[in-house]
Design a protein that fits this description.
Layout: E1 8-12, H1 22-34, E2 38-43, H2 46-56, E3 66-71, H3 77-91, E4 96-99, H4 116-142, E5 147-151, E6 154-159, E7 161-166, H5 179-198, E8 204-211, H6 217-225, H7 229-236, H8 245-256, E9 267-270
Parallel strand pairs: 1-2, 1-4, 2-3, 4-7, 7-8, 8-9
Antiparallel strand pairs: 5-6
Length: about 280
């Protein structure tokens, strides 16, 4: 991930303060350590975003590394565009964009009792918010020059940028009482694949990472509400645990790296193999 170009990471988050903690913060730290020249940490929680931006310098390996914080609400189209404009103004280009925004399962209600406002809120953040970000970022990337990577094999064209959306194992599976969340994550894969095809002409890659449970502050809050969740994770996960934030961040770094230059329009599942078979109730 190192080089002479001004590589920039652009994080867009909302609602749960993701850039201030959890996967968003983990990804920002991983990019700084991987050698990017600049990071824009964007979150509705401006204080949290600023705190994360200041922390990145401790782990950055680029000798001219710089990080800034931007307040954004991804359900506000104008706010998203302002964030993209700021990133372009500050760093000149956007090479990587990670959309880790999202709401979890807000209600465990089954379909007959589901409140439509819960469904609408989930779709607004998880789908419309992601769409606003992908649309604005891909347009900005289309206007910049392609980049290349040089190694012992010669020069490899990397295109104009890489976008990674945060999906879920629920992008492919379903569970009772999770209709809004599961619907939004299935739709996110449709968005990812369609946008990947649309952006081929501009050499912009768009993929998704689809983890199962991840040990984040959001999951810890869920464990407080549903104590038996920990036991469920232990039985369903072949590794008997949730994924760690660094494990998810490493996957995202890979998708943005030259090693993934031929990967486009995919949803890479991260579940330790949990969805390969039906869980054994005796486990």
């Amino acid at each position: 991930m190192t080089g002479s170009q001004n590589f920039t990471l652009y994080l867009s988050n909302r609602s749960q303060g993701v850039a201030a903690s959890g996967i968003g913060k983990g990804v920002a730290l991983a990019f700084a350590e991987a050698g990017v020249a600049g990071v824009v940490v964007a979150d509705v929680n401006e204080h949290g975003a600023q705190s994360t931006a200041e922390e990145l310098g401790q782990y950055a390996t680029h000798n001219r590394f710089r990080a800034i914080a931007v307040k954004v609400d991804i359900v506000d189209e104008a706010s998203v565009q302002d964030m993209v404009d700021t990133a372009k103004k500050e760093f000149g280009r956007i090479d990587y964009s990670v959309n880790s925004a999202g709401l979890g399962n807000l209600s465990g209600a089954l379909t007959p009792n589901l409140k439509l406002d819960v469904f609408s809120k989930t779709i607004d953040v998880n789908i419309k918010g992601t769409l606003y970000c992908v649309r604005a970022v891909s347009k900005a990337m289309a206007d910049q020059e392609p980049s290349t990577h040089s190694d012992r094999h010669g020069d490899r064209e990397l295109g104009r940028g890489s976008i990674v959306n945060l999906g879920s194992v629920n992008s492919y599976t379903a569970a009772p009482g999770m209709l809004p969340y599961t619907t939004s994550k299935h739709a996110l894969m449709g968005l990812t694949k369609s946008a990947a095809l649309d952006c081929l002409q501009n050499r912009i890659r768009i993929n998704a990472v689809c983890p199962s449970w991840v040990d984040t502050p959001m999951m810890q809050a869920s464990l407080q509400r549903v104590p038996m969740l920990g036991e469920i994770i232990g039985k369903v996960s072949p590794l008997q645990r949730a994924a760690s934030v660094p494990e998810v961040a490493d996957y995202i770094i890979f998708l943005c790296s030259p090693s993934a230059s031929y990967i486009n329009g995919t949803g890479l599942t991260m579940d330790a193999g949990a969805t390969l078979t039906t869980p054994n109730p005796r486990m």
